[in-house]
Amino acid sequence: MKRIILICVLKLFVAAAYSQEDSTVGQLKEVVITAQRRWLEAIKIPYLVETVIGRDIDDWQPRTTPESLVGLNGVFLQKTNHGGGSPFVRGLTGNQLLLLVDGVRLNNSTFRYGPNQYLNTIDPYNITRIEVVKGTGSVQYGSDALGGVIQVFTREPYFRTFQTLRKWHGSVLGKIMSSGMEQTGRASMEYSADKVAAVVGLTYRNFGDVIGGDTTGKQSPSGYDEFAWDAKIKFYLSDSSRLTVAHQFLKQSSVPLFHKVALENFRTNHTDPQLRSLQYVKLDLDGRTPILKALSVTASFQHNIEARKSNKIGSNTIKNERDLVNVIGLSADLSSDLKPWWTANSGLELYYDLVYSERNEHNDDGLIKAMRGLYPDDSRYGNYSLYSLHHFSWKKFSAEVGGRLNMFRINITDTSIGNVFLTPSAVVGNFAIMYHHNEKHKFFSSLSKGYRAPNIDDMGTLGVIDFRYELPTASLRPERSINMELGYKFNTTLLSGYATLYRMNLRDLITRVRVPGDSINGYPVYQKENTEKGHIEGSEAAIEIHPPGKFRFAGNIAYNYGENSTRAEPMRRIPPIHGRLMANYRSSGWYAAVEWLYAGKQDRLAQGDKDDNRIPAKGTPGWNVFNIYSGYKWRCIQMNGGMQNLINKDYRTHGSGINGVGRSFWMNIIFKL
């Protein structure tokens, strides 16, 4: 029934769009880069791309980077804890979804299957835009992009021009939330000169315990502290060359796992610290030949630490774990204009991970017992690839054809599984075509192969994860997918939006398999194997109404249906039908918006969902949440405020370990210098 309703909605959207034929092209000409590794209007790309821009972040003031994606069509946010936030795209999340920061892979070899917290290690106040590409990405960016790609673009400094008379710019921001749920301070400074431009920012945040809806109350412990700073310097070397040097750092302290304390008899269970730093140097060159139109080379280094501390009630043993991952990266992308109707992007990407993991247990007597960490210590993971994407245009048609060769070198030495040396590889391709009926109406179809190579987390995990105990495994193959999509985009004077149908076939899925009869410390024992295949299909539709004047209206809806063919049961963690309706007003410095977020009940549960203590036995109930936002800008001062969950609904997004925020308000003020 839900699928029939969605198909009817798609037909209505197409009919509504065609009823608005007009000689004037629509007002919204959004330009994106991630889907094809080049700047292009979103309506001309044969894939679906959702975006969050800096103005959205300023107006809505999302608490975290993951929460800035709430309401984007087809993006569903699961929160294991208040310090996390794992987006689902096309029903997939975790290490089956690729995250990028300024073109650099955020995914590393310890990214977990299922929800994780890594997107929350990016400071939302250092973001200018986020692009979400759905259903493609392995050819463009490599392993892990089964469900798609989320790329975060951070703030850019700008060289001084005749429009920019001041060399120095700055801002100071303060934000508070009711019941002590948030106190944030941010200061930034920007320098602009003819040959040098720089921006630096500093953020401190304190999050109190989350106050839930009408029956939940305070969810303690759930609060934590966060400190971040960022810097980016650009050098204008010549008319054809520019150099960028960037640094990002974020540290979160004492981040609790609320559901562990509430449901699993833990006195303490938190991460301290959760830390990420990224440094990169990027050289951009403008060429003078068709083959060398432009060249971009990036060298990067990432340093990640996740330390965990846990202690159960009734036990005098405190467990301390610490995982450290260093990632060295090098990438080069060459842009070519081979013919007036043929352009290309080709390049290479090299990433090398070094993983260190340790664990110890100590008791009240001061005795310390050193143990094997969550991952095999001193593991090595090499990820090397070559790719080429080609873009063609002919009359009313445009097309994309691409391929990627990806090779891996995995080195693990462990007492549990011995010495392991694996060299998996993958060759994938994609094809997409778009029919340009005119400048306002576009029809597209795409076929993309995807893959995810086994990583250190798949092969080497030993210990308690969520509600289970995992054992290492010595041999795994890459997961693979085939994504098929048929869609329609439109952009008229009054309306813009899209409608799409898709299906993703999955095979060689790396899944946790229960070891019959085994139990360790009361936890069932699991091991990962390439055992399953399945499919996820669905439909999405979005529409925006932008009549002449100061009002805008928008709505979207997304539906996913997943089936595990091997087990003859639903795929795990499939989001329910969900969407958003929004109306906003903007005039003379004023901004106001009303938002309705909704999600249906999800009672199609896999056995793994039924075993998950975060999901109610009969499934996750549906919910409706209403929010309002308002802001005013006057000269150098900008003020924003909002009220969340106006009806104080007690709700939880499917699969989460903590309930959503109840009725609350926030406000902030920004001084621009």
Task: List the defining traits of the structure above.
58% strand, mainly beta, 673 residues, 6 helices
Architecture blueprint of SSEs:
Blueprint: H1 2-18, E1 31-32, E2 40-41, E3 48-53, H2 54-60, E4 75-78, E5 86-89, E6 98-101, E7 104-105, E8 127-134, H3 138-141, E9 148-154, E10 168-177, E11 182-192, E12 196-207, E13 210-211, E14 218-219, E15 224-238, E16 241-253, E17 255-256, H4 258-263, E18 266-286, E19 294-312, E20 318-339, E21 342-362, E22 368-372, E23 379-394, E24 397-414, E25 418-422, E26 425-436, E27 441-452, H5 456-460, E28 463-465, E29 468-471, E30 479-491, E31 495-520, E32 523-545, E33 551-564, E34 569-570, E35 578-587, E36 590-599, H6 607-611, E37 623-634, E38 637-644, E39 664-672
Parallel strand pairs: 6-9, 29-32
Antiparallel strand pairs: 1-2, 3-8, 4-5, 6-7, 8-9, 10-11, 10-39, 11-12, 12-15, 13-14, 15-16, 16-18, 17-18, 18-19, 19-20, 20-21, 21-22, 21-23, 23-24, 24-25, 24-26, 26-27, 27-30, 28-29, 30-31, 31-32, 32-33, 33-34, 33-35, 35-36, 36-37, 37-38, 38-39
